[in-house]
Structures are given as C-alpha cells and as structure tokens.
Amino acid sequence: MAVVLFSAFTIVAIFAAPAQAASWNGSLSGAAPGFESRRWTAPTSSTGTTIKFTGCTGSQSVVNVTLYKVVNNGPDTGYVKAAFTQCFAGSSSTSTGNWGDHGAGEYYFVVNDGGGDRVSVRSLTVSY
Fold this sequence. Notes:
The chain has one helix at residues 2-15, and strands at residues 23-31, 35-36, 40-42, 49-58, 63-69, 77-84, 94-99, 105-111, 119-127. It is mainly beta. A hairpin with a 7-residue loop joins β5 and β6. The protein is globular, with a radius of gyration of 18 Å.
C-alpha cells in the first residue's frame, strides 16, 4: 500500500506545474506610450513571466504590453506583444499575458511601445 501511495505522489509531483517564484504589484496612472515598468530579476529556475492588468481605462480599448530582457552592451530583446482588451470591460475585469521562460536575467515591460494613447491600470501583478 505504501509503495502505491508513494508512486502516485511521485507521478503527481512530476507533472504538477511549478509555482511562480516571485511577484510584485503596482498600478499605472496615465502611462504614456513607451512607458517602461520597473525592472525585476528572474532567477535561473524561472517558470516564465505572467503580467496581469485589472481595471484599465483610456481613450482606446486596448493596451499593448511587450516583455523585454535587458542586454548589456546591446539593444534589449523584445518578446511577443500581448494585446490587453478585457481589462477595459470594468474595474474588476482582467487581462493576462504569459511569456515562456527566457532564462535568468533582468526584465521589464513596455506599454504601447508601437504608439497608442495613455492608459491607467487600477491594479497590475507581475509574476516570474
């Protein structure tokens, strides 16, 4: 019986998704196109990055969010741009973007880096 229970636990542990290692919270007030967030450092064991915006307001109904990795002595690496729209549906509505693991390093996100309008976000969470 103990062997069966241990084996079942081992299988669940192997296939369970790892938890996010760290996170930070904030908000945005009238962030202009090209606004850069604070930086954070992802460890070697990073499980990727999740950015969540809740309660977006602005003259447009979309905010584009791009994840960047800092590159010393060169241009920073930009990853896939996420178009957040659901967060404009109400003060408790949320949009979430997920980026895979791009390795250890220093990261930040940029809002509307290709142009757009100012945006405010009641609450945001970055998990990495």
